[in-house]
Amino acid sequence: MTTANEALTKASLPPALRKWHEVVVSRDPLVLHDLLHHDVVFHSPVVHTPQIGRAICFQYLMGAMTVLNTNQFKYLREIVGQREALLEFATEIEGIQINGIDLISWDCNHQITDFKVMLRPLKAVNLVHQKMGEMLQKIAERS
Length: 143
Prior knowledge:
Blueprint (H helix, E strand, L loop, with lengths): L3 H8 L3 H12 L2 H7 E8 L7 E2 L1 H15 L5 E7 L3 E10 L2 E11 L5 E9 L1 H21 L1
Helix pairs in contact: 2-3, 4-5
C-alpha cells in the first residue's frame, strides 16, 4: 500500500528514477531498454571489468531482476541528487539475507548512463555470483 507521503515522494523523483522504480515493479523489458543509454556502463559486484553498452547492461539487469527481485526485495532508503541516486536494498535468497546498493547516474535525457551494484555479505556475493552465472547462461542459450 502506498501512503500519500510515499506517492508525493515518488512524484517528486527525477524521471529516470521514477522509470527505474516502474521497471523494478513491472519488470517490463521495453521500459528498461528505453531507459538505458546506448553507451551505459554497468559495474557488477562479481565481474572485474565494467560492462559497456545497452545490450550487455540490459542482460545483466534483467538477470538481476530475476535473481534478486524476489518477493522479499525492497528498497530501504534512497539518497537522490539531480542526476544520480544511491538506492539501498535488501532481499533474501535461499535463506541468505542480502544487503546492497544500486548507484545510478542518468543524463539530461533521463536515460541511465552508469549503474553500479554493490552487495554484502560475502555469502550473498557468492550466491548472487552463482545465480547470475546460471541466469546469464540461460539467456545466452536462448539467443
